[in-house]
Amino acid sequence: MLHAVRFLCSVSGSDVEQQPDSSKKKTASSSARRRPSRLVIPVVDDAGEVAASWGAAAAAVKEVDVVVEGEGFYVASRAGPRHEMEDAYAVVTHKIDGDSQLACYGVFDGHGGRAAVDFVSQRLGQNVFSAVLTAAEEHGAVSEAIRAAYLATDNELLSQPQGVSGGACATTALVQNGDLYVAHVGDCRAVLSRDGAATALTADHTCAQDDERERIERRGGYVSRSGSGVWRVQGSLAVSRSFGDAGLKQWVVAEPVVSRVPLTAGCEFLVVASDGFWDKVSNQEAIDAVSRCRATACRELVELARSRGSRDDVTVMVVDLERFVR
C-alpha cells in the first residue's frame, strides 16, 4: 500500500512540507536578511504520479543562514555577500509502507539572477520522478529516464513565454531499490563516503576539462581564459553545461552525466554541495567532518568555506545512505 508522500523543497533556504514531521528542525539567523520566496510543493497521488499544481508566495524577509534536519538528510546554506541568494536545494521522497523506497535529493546553483534556479529547483525533481516511475527498472532505463528529465526541464525553462535570463547548475542523487543514481550539469559536486574514504561521483563541467573545451570548439564556439585564469565559454560563462543560458545554448548544454553506484556495505553517506563550498574545501575534508558528527557537519562546513574566503553562496547537503543499503 502506498502511503503519504513527503516533499520538501527549498529555494535558497525556505522550505515547505506537505505533512508535519516532528523529526525535522530548522534554525535561522536572527539577523535575517536574505529569505527567498516560498514554494508550495506538489504531492504524489496513490498511483505514484506527480501532481501538476505548483504555487509560490512571496516573502519580504531574507535570511543569512538556514539549517535543516530532515528524515535522513541535513542541509545548511549561507548567502554570499555579493548578490541575492542563488543556491537552492530540494528533497522528494516516495514512501511505501512508511519506508522511503524512492528518494531524490538535489542541490542547485544559479547564475545571472534567481529566475532559472527557481524554475529548475521546482521542476527537475518532479520531472525525474515522473520519468523514473514510468520507466522499466533496468539500470540503463533508469539512467536514460533521468537524462530525459534533465533535457525536458531545460526545454521547459527555455520555452517560458516571458523568457528566463541566466542559468543554473544542478546535481541530483536518486535512490531506488538499493542503487544510487547521481546526475549533474555544471559544477555542483557529489562525493560519496565509502568506509570513510572520499569518492567523487561527479566531475565539474568547466572549460578547463579538455573534453568539454573540445566539444565546444567542434560546435563552432570558443573558449578563452580570463585574467583571473578562469576558462569561459565565448568569453562569458565559467561552466560548460547548465540549464538555461539561452544565448549560449548551442555550446552550453543540459546533457547530464549519470552514474550508478550499487549501495553496499561501507556506503555511508553522500555530500552534495555548490561550488562556493568545493572551491575552498577538499573532498576528503568534507567526508572527515561529516564522519565526526553528521548532525552539525553541514553548518560547520559552511562556516569553514566562509572562513577560508568563499564569497559565493554556499550550500551543503548530507544524505544518509546506510538506511538504503541492502
UniProtKB/TrEMBL annotation:
EC number: 3.1.3.16
Pfam families named in the record: PP2C
Cofactor or coenzyme needed: Mg(2+); Mn(2+)
Domain PPM-type phosphatase: 72-321
GO MF annotation terms: metal ion binding; protein serine/threonine phosphatase activity
Reactions mediated catalytically: O-phospho-L-seryl-[protein] + H2O = L-seryl-[protein] + phosphate; O-phospho-L-threonyl-[protein] + H2O = L-threonyl-[protein] + phosphate
Position of the signal peptide: none
Keyword Magnesium carried by entry: yes
Keywords, alphabetical: Hydrolase, Magnesium, Manganese, Metal-binding, Protein phosphatase
Region entry Disordered, spans: 15-34
PROSITE patterns attached to this UniProt entry: PPM_2 (PS51746)
Broad class of enzyme this protein falls into: hydrolase
Keyword hit for Magnesium: yes
Entry protein name: protein-serine/threonine phosphatase
Organism name: Urochloa decumbens
